[in-house]
Amino acid sequence: MNDIVESAIGGKNITTTVEGRERYPVNARYARDFRQDIDALKRVLVATPTGAQVPIDLLADIRYKTGPPSVRSENGKLVGFVFVDITTTDIDGYVRKASQQLSQRIQYPPGYYISWAGQFQYLQAAKERLKIVIPLTLLIIFVLLYMNTKSLMKTVIVLLAVPFSLIGAFWFLYILGYNMSVAVWVGLIALAGLDAETGVVMLLYLDHAWEKFRGEDRMNNTRDLHDAVMEGAVGRVRPKIMTVCAILFGLLPIMWSPVMQAGADVMKRIAAPMIGGVVTSAILELLIYPVIYVIWRRRELPDRTEEEPSPIVPPTLVPSHRVRHHLPRIIATTLIAIGLIYGASFVWHKASARKIANSPFATQTVNDLTVKLIARAGQLQKGDNNVLIEFRDSDGQLVDVGDVNFTIDMNMPGMMMHGGGPAQKTETTGQYRTKVKADMAGNWNARISYDGPRGKGEQSFSISAK
Fold this sequence. Notes:
The chain is of the alpha+beta class. The chain is about 45% helix and about 20% strand.
């Protein structure tokens, strides 16, 4: 019977024709009229050992059944792929939550298991590499610093800049809402190199002041050590500020790059920890390094007795009575100016978000209603889009239709992209606003539906994103 199915329905090569140097197989099977539907297939005759021919319907059950388009295998086992397009950048967190939900709801038969591939698999492989790269990087920095300073204590002091900078790096990542990723780890590795550079220069200035005071035979007590550290630390302020400003001015333009620009997401996550880390590293190095240096060098002094502590703020830096009188007004004015700047920026962004062109990029008729889709740029763009949806009756009046849902889909071999969702009502009756993200330019299958006072309606159509 399998031979009949193969030869009569599927087709079977019975010979090969030779035409010069060319070879063509000859395939034979039933004509289309005898195999175009299930009823015709049921009448296919099968020869029995006795020579009689019976319909295949008496020997087998023929019916339509949905099956996999192809059979794939990995590691010697059959495998089926489910493609998932997530809307969040936290791939690791999504996989953890999804795995937890699947383990609670699905009981796998013996021999079945689930594994995550794609970007998550690449992320796990990158983490395994980083477990080697990060310690190796710190070891190389430590060895280079030790070869330069010839002192284990100096090397440790310089490396203290790394935890100082991590404070600002993680705070800045938290403010921006970035998750840990390979790009962030690359930024942290680059930050470690910057910390070592700035820490060496700071320590160099302190050592120069120490050697200068010792050469002049002025390093006798704690007071002399404080004076030397003050001279070295003050001499480091201007170069330190210049270094920080040069780094910030080089990295801040990356943070202002548009989201739709190629590579912007990766570069922002590399630059973010460097920006936050450089700021806190500069502040803490100027404040904490001198203290650590004093504690270390005090053991080498012939006289370790502490003198009467001097005031924390030098008298020359104490503001006068007139300045103190106007200080609250100055602070209040500064805060008001900052508030006005942020308020104006907030209003500008809100106004820009609400400003949408009047010409629709798509017009559809659903039942007896006219639906207009309006975007700020006059059409859908690659990336995030604010879309205004209008429902008008036959008289051209805006009407309320209840709940509205607008989605776009793009199906490609091995990949499916989705965007859109429920639309929110605006202050104007009959107008709805929604956010739609088109992950790539091209033609998208759009679907709009509503359910409310005007009944139910649904329409599918094609739109283009550029």
